[in-house]
Amino acid sequence: MKKYFVPTMMVLLTATTCSFAQKENNKSITIENRLQTDPVSLQLPAFHSTKNIEGKAFELQNLLQDNQLEINELQPAEKDNLKWNGENLQWSKTATNKKGFTGSKSAENSLLFYASYFSADEWMQAKLIIEAYPLLEVYIDGEKKISHYKAETDDAKELSEELKIEPGKHCILVKVVSGKKNDFKLGITPNKPWDENNIKLSLSPQQSVTIHKILDGENVRNIELSSDGKFALLSYSRTLPPSDNSENWKEIQEIESEKILYTFRGSQLANIQWLPTGNRISYTKEYNEKTSLFIFDFENGRETEIANSIADFSDYNWTPDGKQIIFSVTKDYSEDWKIRKIQGMEDRLPWFRTRSFLYKLDVASGVKQRLTYGTITTSLQDISPDSKYILFSQARPDYKEYPYDKQNLYQMNLETFEIDTIWKDKLFGGSAQYSPDGTQLLVQAGPSCFGKLGENIGKQPLANNYDGQLYIFDLKNKKADPITIHFDPSVSQAVWNKSDMNIYLKANDKDYIQLYRYQPTNKEFNALQINSDVIGNFSLSADGKNIACTACSISSPYKAFVYELASNTSKLISNPQKENLKNVKFGKTEDWNFTKEDGKTIIGRIYYPPNFDSNKKYPVIVNYYAGTSPVERSYGGRYPLNLYASMGYVVYLLQPSGAVGFGQEFSAEHQNNWGITTADEIIEGTKKFLKAHSFADADHVGCIGASYGGFMTMLLQTRTDIFAAAISHAGISDITSYWGEGYWGYSYSVNASGKSFPWNNRKLYIDQSPLFNADKVVTPMLLIHGSVDTNVPLGESIQMYQALKLLGKDVDFVQVKNQDHHIKNYTQRILWNNTIFAYFAKHLKDQPKWWENLYPDKNL
Q1: Spatial separation of the C-alpha atoms in residues 378 and 390, rounded to whole Å
Q2: How far is CA 796 from the centre of its chain?
Q3: How many secondary structure helices (H) and strands (E) does the chain include?
Q4: Handedness of CA 507, 510, 511, 517 (dihedral sign)
Q5: In a 3-state reduction of DSSP, which class is residue 543?
Q6: Residue 308 CB: number of other CB atoms within 10 A?
Q7: Residue ranges with strand state E in 485-625
Q8: pLDDT tens digits for 109-168?
Q9: What span, in angstroms and rounded, lies between the C-alpha atoms of 133 and 177?
Q10: Cβ 680 vs Cβ 648: under 8 Å
């Protein structure tokens, strides 16, 4: 068998004034420096001279076209190792000859790899040019741009490709099958109006964060501990570019050794969870559109089916003794229709006619019994520690009384099916779980769940019931103790530990999300020390000794930790994005707060570009949500502010009044304000920020927000002219139409405009709606909206666009096809992101070409 000798090398570019071609009077930047590895060998396939079924023999170009290595994963640095058939090849620095040729002395028909990096500080167009003798392929960021499949012996073949280069660093890879002449010259020629100064070449793969670094790679989503805390069930996901598909799977990891014991990648199993006793898992499988339940025992490796043929199965929970399962059956009672009567406001929602009811499965006998029935969905809240009782609730709309939603909570004896009513027709009903001894309930709800008992809102007339609170409710005397009434963080998750009798909770503390321990004996809250800013999900092991959680920070994606309660120490067990981000450099982030004239402090933070220079001037992007949730200090998200900073902007993020996590009085300011206080705080904060920072270019300041933040973007432009560009995604232009049309319009308004309506508060609904003040707008504005948004209907952007157009204002409107309130489709998310960047580049950097390329004017 004939062998091919393969020196594999990666060549990196450095800036040079040398030019081997003149294109449109711009200089071409040529290759001069490189990295390369030691040579390796490659074999031809067996029967390579035999023609295949299509009558073709194996050719040298097939060696070139074979995918020996993942091209898009090759981003070497000097002294990195390249793994090749069991060998570690180290990258070393070298250089081409003075003419810019590779000068390779490789044996004929050898396979070689070359690489280079180049970066652009703005969107630009250029021509990639190569003059080559050997067979080769040229890739940029893993995408093939040029192919040359015929070896030249006399004159080098010149090939070129027009490039549209996005800001940031890019990797060029050249894959060569050597021939009698192996020389090639590679260059990039910027098109006018750009020149060679717009492109910089280097030997380092270090780069700023990109949208692909945020969206791609493996991500840990959830973690659950086995009953003894020795094993973790981890949930992962990853995108599958360039498609819009994604993959989700689970793995079981041993905590101490960090070994992966089982993976459910590609499995048809669903609803995987730990049993409350022993190292066993349960899961479901689908057969003929019906569900079967199984147990798998790790100690004996045995799978046991415990139930089958369950129609309309939705979810399940184990009783603490592991002898019974409480499961839900969910059915959609909607009908095909051509015309129908809507029975209440919620009936227009597609899921309103879906009903769910509870069943019990006795594991030993396989007997299934129905627990609930009727016209209203019954939702399981908890199972008692002795496995004898369940808590379940019913919720229904009630249009006669604010806040128009009522909840009943019941306790059922699982043996006799007898029911006790815990509460009936409670306003702002929440979730409930048993105390370890079963005599009390831990209730998570809003401040008004028990009337004024849990409210601490100062002079504010109405509480914001998105501000999560905890109560201990005594089942015997039916009295509640508001344990978080003087605890400012807003609670979103809690569990009562039967081992140490403490309550562990996750809560928004301003823009942090932290884990806390509450000790009922001394009524103290203490934060658990986990080295992250934002806790995602957390779970407590059944033995109560360990907590598992996912967590992230501003410049660090979600990781998985296990926290040992006895020692108060945490252990990192999963960091799937480590390799993906190893060459990414983030800019600095720091807090920046300001004090209003009334003495209130508004917190915020600054994101700096990488390689920030305080002597330069930078355009500024101001970001906010301004709804009832703070913009947490998380990585990525809808608006990845690290990414904005990497594009050369200073980003100022502030948390205006009305957000939870700052205390009930602060969050209650969201009620019946609809942006007036918030807008003025954003304006005041922006002015003070610009005055305090000489590097901030006050003439090039943009603002951006989504949903309620999109509403704020529109409202701000009716109250100030300090912004040079404004972007509203899924914003509300008319509070009245949103209140009536949005799926959550009137229910959200319970906490945004409580007891106020279009007919009794015209000043709020009309005077504070941006649509009715459109004539005051002077700032260029971009409106972006998903075409099937049900939360904030598309019409909110349409009517504002129409108003601004008729008024002769500078406005653009971009729809994202078949996307709802969030842009989740992978390729559309990238296009949406680039739309935002291109618009800001046009107005804040005086660089309109990217926008013009994305959205060229058509002669319509």
Answers
A1: 12
A2: 25
A3: 12, 55
A4: negative
A5: coil
A6: 13
A7: 490-496, 503-509, 512-519, 524-527, 534-540, 546-553, 556-564, 569-574, 589-591, 594-595, 601-602, 604-607, 618-623
A8: 778 888 889 999 999 999 999 999 999 999 999 999 999 999 888 899 999 999 999 999
A9: 10
A10: no
What are the backbone dihedrals phi and psi of residue 290, each rounded to the nearest 5 degrees, phi first? -125, 160
CATH class of the 589-852 domain in this structure: alpha beta
pLDDT (0 to 100) of residue 507: 97
| Distance separating alpha carbons of residues 793 and 699, to the nearest angstrom | 33
Token reading at 698: 């006050």
**C-alpha distances in Å from residue 625, one per residue of 511, 602, 604, 689, 755:** 12, 14, 12, 18, 23
480-519: burial string, b at 16+ Cβ within 10 Å, e else: bbbbbeebbbbbbbbbbbbeeebbbbbbbbbbbbbbbbbe
Please state, in angstroms and rounded to a whole number, the distance separating the CA atoms of residues 620 and 196: 27
Q: How far apart are the first and last CA of the chain?
A: 64
Tell me what pLDDT residue 384 has: 98
Check residue 586 and report its DSSP letter. P
Pairing state of beta strands 168-177 and 111-120? antiparallel
What is the token pair recorded at 540?
Answer: 């407590």
Give the architecture (CATH level 2) of 3-207. Answer: Sandwich (2.60)
CA distance 196 to 29: 7
Chain position carrying tokens 């949903």: 707
Asked if residue 59 has pLDDT above 60, the reply is yes
* ∠ CA 345-348-354, rounded to 5°: 105
Distance, in Å, from the CA atom of 554 to the CA atom of 52, rounded to the nearest integer, reads: 55
| Rounded-to-integer distance, Cα 649 and Cα 37, Å | 38
Three-state DSSP state, 332: strand
Q: Give me the DSSP letters along 137-178.
A: EEEETTEEEEEE-S--SSSPEEEEEEEEEPSEEEEEEEEEE-
pLDDT in tens, 84-120: 888 888 888 877 655 555 555 666 777 888 888 999 9
DSSP 3-state assignment of 358? strand
Three-state SS at 4? strand
For residue 167, what pLDDT is reported?
95
Which residue, chain included where needed, has tokens 């501990």?
A: 225
CA distance 740 to 345: 9
Kindly report whether the peptide bond that precedes residue 403 is cis, defined as omega within 30 degrees of 0: yes
Q: Tokens standing for 340? A: 């129908």
Euclidean distance between CA atoms 623 and 641, whole angstroms: 9
Measured between alpha carbons, how far is 164 from 170 in angstroms, rounded to an integer? 12
Q: Give the containing element (helix H, strand E) for 683.
A: helix 676-692
State the SS3 of 772-834: HHHHHCCCCEEEEEECCCCCCCCHHHHHHHHHHHHCCCCEEEEEECCCCCCCCCHHHHHHHHH
Can you give the length of the chain in residues? 860
This prediction has a pTM of 0.92
Alpha carbon 300 to its chain centroid, in Å, reads 39
What token pair was written down for 208? 């700023």
In this predicted model, what pLDDT tens digit does every residue of 646-665 receive, in sequence order?
999 999 999 999 999 999 99
Please list the residue range(s) of the chain that carry CATH number 2.60.120. Answer: 3-207
Are 668 and 585 in contact by the 8 Å Cβ rule? The answer is no
Please give the average per-residue pLDDT across 681-709, as a whole number: 97
- Every domain of the chain with CATH number 3.40.50.1820 lies at 589-852
